[in-house]
Amino acid sequence: MGREVLKSYEKFTSSSLSAVCLGNFDGVHRGHQKIISTCLDIALRKKQSPICFSFDPHPSKILRPDRAPKLILTPEEKLEMLMNFPFSTIINQTFDRRFSEMSAVHFAENILDARLHAKDIVVGRNFRFGKGAAGTPDLLEQYNHWTVDVVEPIPTQQGNVMSSTRIREWISSGEIQNANEALGYHYFLTGIIEPGDGKGGPLGFHTANLRTEKECLPGNGVYASVYCDLETGRFFPAATNVGVRPTLHGRESKKTIESHLMQFSGDLYSRKARLYLLEKIRDERQFSGLEELRGQIGSDVQKILDILFATKIFSAFDATQSWSLSQSPTLAPFFRSFPRLA
Question: Given a cut of 70, is residue 289 above it in pLDDT?
Answer without folding.
Answer: no
